[in-house]
Each structure stands twice: as C-alpha cells, then as structure tokens.
C-alpha cells in the first residue's frame, strides 16, 4: 500500500464534517486502495465534541484509515498536509445572505493562510467550503503566498449538482443523463447556472438540454432562481444549512481534482486568469476539465450570449464588492 494521503478537515466537529469524514475515510474520494491520515481541526470549545467524532471514526473500523489527529492548533493541523478541506466557519441562518458572514469568517481564513503557508506541502490542494466561499478562498490564497495560486479552489460543485438534478427532474431522466451544466461566478444568489451548453441523453439520444426541455421561460427564470436560492430553501426547511449534499459535493470536487475529469466538465471556483473577460485574480467559478496531472483548465471557446454576458458580469461585480469589503475588514 502507498503512504497515507494527509487530509485536513476544518470545522471537523460541525455538521458537514459529520457526513464528510466517513466518505473520505472509507475511500470514496482517494480510492479504495489509498490509506488516509485525517487531521481534524476545530476551535477549543468544540474539542469534547470532536473527541466523540474521533471515537465514532475509530468504531467504524475502516481499513484505509491509518491515523486520526484531532487538534485545535492551526500549526499542527496544517503540518505537511496534501489536501485542505476548509469547512470550518460560521454558517448563515435564515434571513442572511452568505456575504453577511464576511466579517466573522474572513479572519479565520487570514489566520489559516499563514499556517498553510508556513506548514503545508507546497503541492497542497485547497478547497474552501466555509461561506462566503469564493472570497474566503481568495483571502487564504493571499495569506499563503508560497503556495501556487492554481492550488486554491472553492466549492461550487453543490450548485452544479443542484442544477443537474433540476434538469433531470424536469425531463424525468436520471442524473447521469445530464451533463455539462455550468455554474459561473459566486457561490451566492448572483451565481449564473447556465444550461446553454448542457447536453442530455433522452431515449438513447444525445441532445442539447434546452432542445429537450423546450421551455425557455423555465430555463431563463425558474431554473436559475431555484438553483441560486436552493441553499436558502434548505435553511428555511431544516433551520440548518445543507450538510449531506454539501459533503457529497466536496467529495465530487476533490475526487475529480485528484483523478481528473476525463471528457466531463465540472464547475469549480478558481483564481481567474482572465478567461471569458473575468477580472484576473478573482476567485470565480468556471467550467473546467482536469487532467490526470491534476492541472485544472477552463473549458475554452464557449459562446457567451448577451443574456449570459449580463449574468457573468453581475456575479463578477458582486465578487469585486465582496473582495474589497473583505480586505477592508482585514486592514481595519
Ligand atoms: N460552499 C458550499 O457549497 C457550502 C455548502 C454548505 C455549507 N457551506 C458553509 O460551510 C460552513 C460550515 O457549515 P456547517 O453546516 O458544517 O457549520 P457548523 O456550524 O455545523 O460547523 C462549523 C464548524 O466550524 C468550526 N469552526 C469555527 N471556527 C473555526 C476555526 N477558526 N477553525 C476551525 N474550525 C472552526 C465550528 O466550531 C463548527 O464546529 C458554513 O460557513 C456554511 O455556510 C458552504
Ligand atoms: O446557503 C447556505 O448558506 C449554505 C450553503 O452555501 C448552501 O449552498 O447550501
């Protein structure tokens, strides 16, 4: 067997982690032959709860779980890690937008950026989940200047999965028969879930999703709004933010980064290099393909309609505002 992959999960005593840790430890992400060393970071008041999580992981008697390291110490947590899954942050409650969390949460990512810079492997792959995810990811990348910018991402895979599931449900087909749904921009209610390039298999035939749906009003209104506001709808129903679906999306995101996507397109927040006219340096969700070398590349050459352009720019404008606000808090 190979050496363990060292995976840090922050917010390890929280609700997303409770679903996520089992999937990682049993081999859903890094494969059924890859041993895992799990590092679990949370804040000091949560250490007793974290002890319970550690007991449960032990009681799962999983063959791949080589070691579990619970800690409240950032330096110890980031030491020599291969993968950082940064979940730990306040979740939003009913009536809040994700950017309302900015003030509390950006400080966490500044401090963790310094720890990442000082202690992690330079090849570390970073996925930010804690909201507002794009801006937190941008903050941590700035405070970890020795880690290549390409190694930072934020989670928009949950939005992609939501979009895929909405289309599957509309057409009465299975989820695997819907491909190339795209999420552009911010993991917020300004994100643009885009079906212009999506394809579906219906009755054994591959066709553009919009041709199969035959309902432009649904594509341009109901679909977009449902995906944009799905996180809020879950909060309203559960009184807690999404956790099971978020954990599943994190697994999808990391597995695809680790092994590559092949011909599939997936959406993830990455630091813009200017593709599709998006300001360089912003953490923006694009459709990407990932090679077996773990290199992420934006899908090139997509036609952007006037309708799409407006949406791409609106979510970009929100990200610029969030970025400026985050850095003003950090400088204050
Ligand atoms: N990007 C996405 O798609 C997506 C989806 C769902 C939730 N989220 C976000 O993920 C975050 C976590 O959600 P949750 O439901 O697990 O919340 P939760 O409140 O159940 O758990 C968060 C955990 O983070 C811990 N924490 C707080 N500060 C920390 C720090 N500095 N270091 C380490 N741990 C810290 C808390 O003690 C808590 O145990 C929230 O910000 C939520 O909004 C993002
Ligand atoms: O919406 C939230 O605040 C939680 C999460 O980001 C989600 O999309 O479910």
TrEMBL record:
Catalyzed reactions per annotation: (S)-malate + NAD(+) = oxaloacetate + NADH + H(+)
One Gene Ontology term of the molecular function aspect: L-malate dehydrogenase (NAD+) activity
Signal sequence range: none
GO biological process: malate metabolic process; tricarboxylic acid cycle
Lactate/malate dehydrogenase C-terminal domain ranges (all copies): 156-329
Keywords: NAD, Oxidoreductase, Tricarboxylic acid cycle
Principal EC category: oxidoreductase
Binding site for substrate: 92, 98, 131, 162
Protein EC: 1.1.1.37
Binding site for NAD(+): 42, 105, 129-131
Domain Lactate/malate dehydrogenase N-terminal: 5-152
Species this chain originates from: Nipponacmea radula
Entry keyword annotation includes NAD: yes
InterPro entries the UniProt entry points to: L-lactate/malate_DH (IPR001557), Lactate/malate_DH_C (IPR022383), Lactate/malate_DH_N (IPR001236), Lactate_DH/Glyco_Ohase_4_C (IPR015955), Malate_DH_AS (IPR001252), Malate_DH_NAD-dep_euk (IPR011274), Malate_DH_type2 (IPR010945), NAD(P)-bd_dom_sf (IPR036291)
Protein name: Malate dehydrogenase
Active-site annotation: 187
Similarity section: Belongs to the LDH/MDH superfamily. MDH type 2 family.
One Pfam family cited in the UniProt record for this chain: Ldh_1_N
């Amino acid at each position: 067997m190979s050496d363990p992959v060292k995976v840090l999960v922050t917010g390890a005593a929280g609700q997303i982690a409770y679903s996520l840790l089992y999937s990682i430890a049993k081999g859903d992400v890094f494969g059924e032959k890859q041993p895992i060393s799990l590092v679990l970071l949370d804040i000091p008041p949560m250490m007793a709860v974290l002890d319970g999580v550690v007991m449960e992981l032990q009681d799962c008697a999983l063959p791949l779980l080589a070691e579990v390291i619970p800690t409240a110490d950032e330096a110890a947590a980031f030491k020599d890690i291969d993968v950082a899954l940064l979940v730990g942050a306040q979740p939003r409650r009913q009536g809040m937008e994700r950017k309302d969390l900015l003030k509390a949460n950006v400080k966490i990512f500044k401090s963790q950026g310094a720890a990442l810079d000082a202690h992690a492997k330079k090849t570390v792959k970073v996925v930010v989940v804690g909201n507002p995810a794009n801006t937190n990811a941008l903050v941590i990348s700035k405070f970890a200047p020795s880690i290549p910018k390409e190694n930072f991402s934020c989670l928009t895979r949950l939005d992609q999965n939501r979009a895929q599931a909405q289309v599957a449900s509309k057409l009465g087909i299975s989820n695997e028969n819907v491909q190339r749904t795209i999420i552009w921009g911010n993991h917020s209610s300004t994100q643009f879930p885009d079906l212009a390039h999506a394809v579906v298999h219906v009755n054994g035939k591959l066709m553009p999703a919009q041709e199969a749906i035959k309902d432009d009003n649904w594509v341009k209104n109901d679909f977009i709004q449902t995906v944009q506001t799905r996180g809020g709808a879950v909060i309203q129903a559960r009184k807690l933010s999404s956790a099971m679906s978020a954990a599943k999306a994190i697994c999808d995101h990391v597995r695809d980064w680790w092994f590559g996507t092949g011909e599939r397109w997936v959406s993830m927040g990455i630091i813009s290099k200017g593709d599709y006219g998006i300001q360089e340096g912003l953490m923006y969700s694009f459709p990407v393909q990932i090679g077996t070398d773990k290199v992420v590349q934006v899908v090139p050459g997509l036609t952007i309609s006037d309708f799409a352009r407006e949406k791409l720019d609106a979510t970009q404008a929100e990200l610029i505002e969030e970025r400026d606000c985050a850095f003003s808090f950090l400088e204050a």
